[in-house]
Amino acid sequence: VQSELPKMAMAWRRVLCRLPALSQCRSARLSSDSSAGRLWEIVTNTKKLVTKRLTPVDYGKPMGLPDTVFDFSDSAVVESWACDTDGVIGGESTATLQYDQDQHATFEGVLSTAIPAGGKVKQSGYCLIRSPESTPTLMGESYHDWSDHNGVEVELRGDGRVYIASIYTDGMQAEDIYQAAIYTRGGPLWQKVQIPFVDFLLTSYGYVQNEQSEFNARSIRTFGVLLADQIDGEFKLDIRAIRAITMKKLVTNHEAE
After folding, report:
1. pLDDT of amino acid 237
2. Do the strands 220-227 and 52-55 form a parallel or antiparallel pair, or are they unpaired?
3. What are phi and psi of 27, to 5 degrees?
4. C-alpha to C-alpha distance for 113 and 126, rounded to whole angstroms
5. How far apart are CA 200 and CA 216, in angstroms?
């Protein structure tokens, strides 16, 4: 498991490095001739394929209760997760994942984009955490089954930086990962970031794919959180829980056309 982390992390990092370009392209309406414009066009076209949009969960509706998949108030859960950095490729980033006595996990460290000496590595700067791999049983592999839900919720207290939620399912290559952005507010308050499954984009080797497909929610192998925003310096992300949730469906403008 540990040997797979560097390959997956590099793929995750390449996607996240493109987020600033995506944001600039959207706000400045860059032409599709630019690399940022072309990537944003891919993402936009992908979203048009989705005929339903989702809104934040309303627990007062008879839509099913959230399923807490990872409860970080349990120290054993925190200790079961893996933490890794670009140090495995010679980078200088450092990170830890520890249990806090206030009953949550703390993912913190220092991100460094310094290029390792030797010339073999052209880019660096990532830190990540990941849930344990699914384990074989007498009945086969033991996967997380989120098929009764259509979104994921991360209860966190962030630092204002952009992180990436990553889902790896059965049958995928190590470089193929579904990813979505986690935007944190920063400050002392906790927040619940809710991400519809349809917002996760299929990436391969760090590139958003033209042809998108919804991931298999019945066989989720791992869930991870990555930081690779190319901003040198300290970071800190507190996490209380990760939940599978049911979000209310609404018709989109695209569907109404």
Report:
1. 98
2. unpaired
3. -75, -40
4. 8
5. 12
Q: Which residues of 16-49 are buried (b: 16+ CB within 10 A; e: fewer)?
A: bbbbebbeebeeeebeeeeebbebbebeeebeee
How far is Cα 51 from Cα 249, in angstroms, rounded to an integer? 10
Label residues 95-115 b or e (16+ Cβ within 10 Å = b): bebebeeeebbbbbbebbbeb
What single-letter DSSP state applies at residue 59? T
For residue range 44-67, what is the model confidence (pLDDT) as tens digits?
444 443 334 455 555 444 356 789
Q: Which of 76, 137, 135 is nearest to 105 (CA)?
A: 76
Tell me whether strands 220-227 and 248-251 are parallel, antiparallel or unpaired. Answer: unpaired
Where do we find the tokens 């209310």?
A: 248
- E strands, 41-103, where? 52-55, 67-71, 82-85, 94-100
| pLDDT band for position 33 (cuts 50, 70, 90) | very low
Q: Which residue has the tokens 């703390």?
A: 106
pLDDT over threshold 80, residue 42: no
What element of type H or E holds 108? Answer: strand 104-111
State the Cα–Cα distance between residues 81 and 98, nearest whole angstrom.
10
